[in-house]
DNA sequence: TCGCATATTGAATCGCCCG
DNA sequence: ACGGGCGATTCAATATGCG
C-alpha cells in the first residue's frame, strides 16, 4: 500500500451510513480510495395512472419523489453527475455495478461508456417470481439488468472465477442469474406492516456480486444505500462498506439492520446454491425450433385421430382446438390426457412420438 | 385501407432483397408503409484502430479518451440515422425490434428513446449453448438483448398475448427466452464449409418475434438482412417481407435460402385468439331474445347481491340502476366490474352465470 | 400442530370503441 | 378530439385462517 492510499483509507468513514446528497458526499471522499461500487439508482419509471389486478386490488407502484424526473435530459444529467463522482473515488483497479430496468438502463449504460468506464459484462437478474402483466398487453417484465464495468479500458479488476464456478455447481457462471425477489422475512417492514422501502434488493443478488468481484477487506461503496442490503451482505462477507443515503429514515433502518448481521466465518460464504432452470418444455418450442412445421399433421398413437399444428403450438382437429393435451382429451372423450405420450408425427413414413423431440430439447438445455 | 396506405402498399418491393445502403433504401420507401421492423445492426464498434469521425476522417490514435469518444460518437450518429429512417417508414401503429449485446445495446436503447420510440419490453435471449469464456476473466456471455418498441408513446401496437401464452404452456410469456444459437443444419455454410455469416440468428427467435407482434399478411422490414433469417421465417408464417442488405453476396444467399422455404397454410397461421377479438354482445340482446325475462332476478356470484332485469337490458337494485357493469361496480364499491362474470340467474334452482347465455348467442352468430 | 383453502403482494412505463 | 362506457386481465411466494 502506498502512502497516498494508506492515507486515503484512513480518511474513509468505513462501515457507516452518511446522510445527504450522494454526489456531494462522494466528492468529500478521498480520490481513488474505494474498491467496488454497487449502485441502485432511481429507475425513472414514468408511471402514469393507477393499475389494478384482475381481482380489482390496486398495485402499489413506485410513486416516490426520488423517482420523478422531468425528462430524459434531466435523468441523463443526474446520471452523468453521479457517475463522474463515483469514478473519481474508485481505485484505478476498482469496478462498478449498476442495476436498472429498461426504463433507465440504456441511459446508464451509455453514460458509463461515455464516462470512461469499460463494460465487462451485462448481467440479467431473472426473477423466479416477478409481478405478472395484469392487462395482458406486454410480456411479463421478468428481469432486471446489471452492468459490471471496470474503471477504464485495460484496467485490472477483481474476478473470482473459481468461486463463481463453485456457486454454479462446477460450471462457468453465466451472465443470467435466476434469483427470487426480496420478500418474506428478508423484506423490511415498517411498524404498521408496510414495506419499508419500495425497491429493496435481495441479499442473494448482492452476495453473488460481492463474491464475484471483491475480496475480503475490500471497501464497498453504495451511493443509493436505501435500507442497506449492500452493507448487510458486505458485513456478512467480511468486506468494509460505506453507504450514502439521502433519506434519514432509510439510513436509520439500515444502521439497525446491519448491526444485527453476524459476520461470517468462511463457511457461510458457500451457501447460495444456484437454481437451475426447470426442464419444462412447452410444446410450442418444437414449432419455434423447426422440429415441427406449422400445418404439420400429428397422429394419435392408436392411429385413429389426427390434428394439425399451428404456429403458436396449439392444435386444430375437425371438432376442436387447444393444447396437445386438450385436443387429445376431447377426441378421446376423457377428462384429461397427456398429449406428450398421445401424439406422434411422420418422418419418412415412420410414426415418431413427439416426446422424442422434447427429450432432444431437454438434452440441449442441460448440455 | 385508406387511399394513401393502399398506394404505399402498392409501391412496396414486397418479398425482395434490395442491395445498398439501408438508410438510402429506407428513404426510398413510402412513409408509414411497414408494420414491423426487425433490426440486427452491426455490433462492431471497431474500437481498436480504424476509427472514423462522422465526416469519415480518420481518427489519429493518440489520445485514448478521444478515440473512445470518437468511436461511440460515430456509432451513435449511425444509429440515430438509421433509426430515423426506420421510424419514417413505419406505420403509426407499427413497432420495431432491435437486437444487440452490451457493446452496442445501450447506445441503441438510448437512441430509440431519443428518437421518439416507446419501449414496450426488453427481452433477453438466453442461449442454451453460448460460447464459454475461455480465459476465465469474466462471466460467460450467455445472452443477447432485444428491445421491442412502439412508434411513439401511446401508439397502438400488435401483441398476440394468447398466442404467446400458448407457446409457453398456458402461462404468460416472460421477458427471458431460452433458445439455442443457430448451428447445425440451419447454419448457412459457404462452399468451402465456413459459416456464411458471422452472426446468423436462429429462426426460432424470429418465429417468436413474428408470432408475438405481427399478423399474417403484415409487412416486415429488415434493414440489416444478412442471410435472410427474417425473410425465411416471415415467408413460412405468411407475412410479407422486405430485406435491405449492403453485401450482394449475402443478398444472393438470402434469396436462394428463402425461395426454398415452404409457406404454411392459412389455417395453421391462425393463432389462439383473445376474447377481446370476439364480437360484442349487448346484455339487452339476452332480454330481446327471451333468454332472460324482464323482471327476472339476477344474483351475484357470491350470493350476497341481487338486481332485477328491465326490458331495456338495464338492471335495478335497491340502491342503484344502470348497466350490468355499473350496478355490479356500485354494489361492490369498485371503480369498475365486469358484469358478465359477476351475475348469474336461476333455472330449476341452479345458479347459472349469465356469460353462458352470451356464449350461446356468439355460437349462433358464428354458425 | 398439521393440512388445506383463502388472501395478499411484488421497480408496472398494462384499453378500446363509439358517439 | 375527447369523454364515457364496456368488459378483459395474473404468477409465485408468503401470510393467515379454519377445521
UniProtKB/TrEMBL annotation, chains A, B:
Enzyme Commission code(s) on record? 2.1.1.-
- One MF term from GO for this chain? DNA binding
- One Pfam entry for this protein is RAMA
Give start and end of each DNA methylase N-4/N-6 domain. Answer: 34-255
What catalytic reaction does the record list? a 2'-deoxyadenosine in DNA + S-adenosyl-L-methionine = an N(6)-methyl-2'-deoxyadenosine in DNA + S-adenosyl-L-homocysteine + H(+)
GO terms for biological process, alphabetical: DNA replication; methylation
Under Gene3D superfamilies, the record lists: Vaccinia Virus protein VP39
Q: What Gene Ontology terms describe where this protein resides (cellular component)?
A: cytoplasm
Q: Which UniProt keywords apply?
A: DNA replication, DNA-binding, Methyltransferase, S-adenosyl-L-methionine, Transferase
User: The RAMA domain covers which part of the protein?
Assistant: 265-366
The record's similarity note reads: Belongs to the N(4)/N(6)-methyltransferase family.
Q: What name does the UniProt record give this protein?
A: Methyltransferase
Amino acid at each position: 500500500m502506498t502512502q497516498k492510499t494508506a492515507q486515503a483509507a484512513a480518511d474513509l468513514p468505513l462501515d457507516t451510513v452518511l446522510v445527504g446528497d450522494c454526489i456531494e458526499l462522494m466528492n468529500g471522499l478521498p480520490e481513488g480510495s474505494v474498491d467496488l461500487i454497487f449502485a441502485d439508482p432511481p429507475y425513472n419509471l414514468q408511471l402514469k395512472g393507477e393499475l389494478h389486478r384482475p381481482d380489482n386490488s390496486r398495485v402499489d407502484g413506485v410513486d416516490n419523489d426520488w423517482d420523478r424526473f422531468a425528462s430524459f435530459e434531466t435523468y441523463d444529467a443526474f446520471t452523468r453527475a453521479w457517475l463522474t463522482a463515483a469514478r473519481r473515488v474508485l481505485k484505478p483497479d476498482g469496478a462498478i455495478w449498476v442495476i436498472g430496468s429498461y426504463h433507465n438502463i440504456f441511459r446508464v449504460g451509455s453514460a458509463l461508456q461515455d464516462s470512461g468506464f469499460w463494460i465487462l459484462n451485462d448481467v440479467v437478474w431473472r426473477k423466479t417470481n416477478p409481478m405478472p402483466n395484469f392487462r395482458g398487453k406486454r410480456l411479463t417484465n421478468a428481469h432486471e439488468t446489471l452492468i459490471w464495468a471496470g474503471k477504464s479500458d485495460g484496467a485490472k479488476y477483481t474476478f473470482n472465477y473459481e468461486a463463481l464456478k463453485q456457486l454454479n455447481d462446477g460450471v462457468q457462471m453465466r451472465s443470467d442469474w435466476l434469483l427470487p425477489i426480496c420478500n418474506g422475512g428478508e423484506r423490511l417492514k415498517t411498524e404498521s406492516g408496510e414495506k419499508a422501502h419500495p425497491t429493496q434488493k435481495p441479499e442473494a443478488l448482492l452476495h453473488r456480486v460481492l463474491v464475484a468481484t471483491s475480496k475480503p477487506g475490500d471497501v464497498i461503496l453504495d451511493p443509493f444505500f436505501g435500507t442497506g442490503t449492500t452493507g448487510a451482505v458486505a458485513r456478512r462477507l467480511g468486506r468494509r462498506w460505506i453507504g450514502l443515503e439521502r433519506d434519514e429514515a432509510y439510513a436509520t433502518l439500515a444502521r439497525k439492520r446491519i448491526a444485527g448481521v453476524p459476520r461470517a466465518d468462511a463457511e457461510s460464504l458457500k451457501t447460495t446454491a444456484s437454481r437451475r432452470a426447470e426442464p419444462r418444455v412447452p410444446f410450442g418450442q418444437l414449432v419455434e425450433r423447426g422440429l415441427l412445421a406449422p400445418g404439420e399433421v400429428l397422429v394419435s398413437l392408436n392411429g385413429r385421430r389426427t390434428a394439425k399444428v399451428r404456429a403458436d403450438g396449439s392444435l386444430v382437429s375437425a371438432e376442436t382446438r387447444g393444447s396437445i393435451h386438450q385436443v387429445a382429451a376431447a377426441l378421446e372423450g376423457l377428462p384429461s390426457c397427456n398429449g406428450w405420450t398421445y401424439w406422434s408425427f411422420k418422418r419418412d413414413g415412420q410414426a415418431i412420438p413427439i416426446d422424442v423431440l422434447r427429450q432432444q430439447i431437454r438434452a440441449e438445455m442441460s448440455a
